[in-house]
Amino acid sequence: MKNLPLGKGFPALGLGTWKSAPGDVGAAVKTAIDVGYRHIDCAAIYGNEAEIGDALKAYVADGSVSRDDLWITSKLWCDSHSDPRAALEKTLADLRLERLDLYLIHWPISLRPGASFPLEADDFIGRDELPLDELWRSMEALVDAGLTTHIGVSNFNADKLTSVLDGARIPPAVNQVEMHPYLQQPELLELCLRRGVALTAYSPLGSLDRPEHMKSDDEPNLLEDPVIGSVARDIGATPAQVLLAWAVQRGTSTIPKSTNPGRLAENLAAADLTLSDDAMAKIAALDRHRRYVDGTFWAAPGSPYTVEDLWGE
Ligand code: A2P
After folding, report:
1. How far apart are CA 150 and CA 152, in angstroms?
2. For a designed S-S bond to 25, which of 31, 48, 189, 256 qualifies (C-beta 3.0 to 4.6 A apart)?
């Protein structure tokens, strides 16, 4: 397995657990670990950490996998920015762990405790009330307390990432953002590589199983892209494997979600594929700045946040 140079090694291919239903996710994590995954990407808001914790505990307890060999990421939900420590302690209790490898600020959006969708104006905490540098200091305190080895961010654009990096005592180790051939973001990737921040690409397969309210009618389907299909045929791989191999070859880590045993193994094997320069160039030409997770749900009426400010575009 390829690792990114971060701490004990950050496995380039991890398991995504967003949209993995309670009842399915535990089996998916078990199958994933059995076939060789060592990096599991979680988040409190996915609502499935307790079941993931049950699955992890079984391996660590019987000694079949050492805790040191696993890389477990989780994320601070937006309604817990006033007390990240309490949120992380809940996540650790659910995951049955003493320490995370990586804890991310899930979004640069702050909500009042307990706020839920659909959001109303009163649910938001504006940036003036809770500046990002103040939030980052409470993330640094989690490393000091030994509750997580690394901290990082998610859905941060170049300006927000730079601002956190410039003011940090403990710099963000990772920025996790949507990234795939239709949203290649070369400038953000270059910034991360230059400033020593690992980039994790989420929704690498286009997240076709997103909730309907997060979809639009005219969405292009990455898995059916003819260029991806022809590269896949040339190397005897599947389109999903080409998408994942592309992510790993660009120096990112990536976290495809699956609960299907065959696809879990197929996806992991993609980390060992090599795409030719010609294939990489053909895929580079597919960029169309298309977000599947566009963040419009943060721009509810009365919200102090805008989609333009979120992505800086
Ligand atoms: P499933 O869980 O049934 O395998 P993303 O990681 O971009 O969020 O995409 C997840 C979606 O892609 C899920 O619908 C998942 O379905 C599907 N998927 C995962 N692996 C593959 C694969 N190898 N081929 C086709 N679809 C896949």
Report:
1. 7
2. 48
